[in-house]
Design brief:
Elements: E1 2-6, E2 10-15, E3 28-31, E4 38-43, E5 46-51, E6 59-64, E7 77-80, E8 86-93, E9 96-103, E10 106-113, E11 119-122, E12 129-135, E13 141-147, E14 154-159, E15 165-170
Antiparallel strand pairs: 1-2, 2-3, 4-5, 5-6, 6-7, 8-9, 9-10, 10-11, 12-13, 13-14, 14-15
Length: 191
């Protein structure tokens, strides 16, 4: 795939089949000339497209890689609709979708089965921010970086199949943080 950015406002995406002539790939337009963002992942014969097209908080669309005119959005199906929270990360790890949302300035991670659509929340250490997610589409091991007021930047390993996770690395600080708790409180504004 080839993504052409137009500043912070939008990007165009072109795709080519793997295995073709690497010196002159046959790129086909997937999303071109629109004032939106398109982030594309290919998995098991489908393109999964994270986009803000008609969804300011982002959604996931899906289209078969064999669709003749990939840029025809009437051929795309809404796979994960726009939610109340902003979707800011989508990855396929261990054959499942990993969804990263921003909820009231904090991160929430979810795992979703690509066939059944069943979802489960990935428990995070406390309220805070996931700053990176890595993993392979065919391997069950995922790593994510997490930080908060009570947890210095740390890396966690999660097994997608079993749900077990552990801290594997992080900043070392000479302060006992065990007595610090993080709580989120909401108040109504006068305006």
């Amino acid at each position: 795939k080839l993504s052409v950015s137009h500043g912070w406002n939008s990007n165009d995406v072109y795709v080519a089949k793997a295995g073709g002539d690497p010196t002159s790939p046959d790129f086909k337009p997937l999303a071109v000339g629109e004032n939106n963002h398109f982030y594309v992942t290919e998995f098991n014969g489908f393109f999964y497209i994270m986009t803000d097209h008609e969804a300011p908080k982002y959604k996931i669309m899906r289209v078969s890689c064999d669709t003749p005119d990939l840029s025809n959005k009437s051929k795309w199906e809404e796979f994960i609709p726009e939610q109340e929270s902003t979707l800011d990360d989508f990855r396929i790890i261990g054959g499942k979708a990993v969804l990263g949302y921003q909820v009231k300035a904090c991160s929430r991670l979810e795992l979703m089965d690509l066939v059944s659509g069943d979802r489960q929340e990935i428990p995070l250490p406390t309220l805070g921010t996931v700053t990176a997610i890595t993993g392979e589409e065919d391997q069950p091991e995922m790593h994510y970086s997490f930080e908060s007021y009570a947890v210095p930047d740390s890396i966690y390993r999660l097994n997608i199949q079993t749900g077990s996770q552990e801290k594997v690395d992080g900043l070392k600080v000479d302060v006992d943080l065990s007595g610090i708790t993080t709580e989120q409180v909401t108040y109504n504004s006068k305006d």
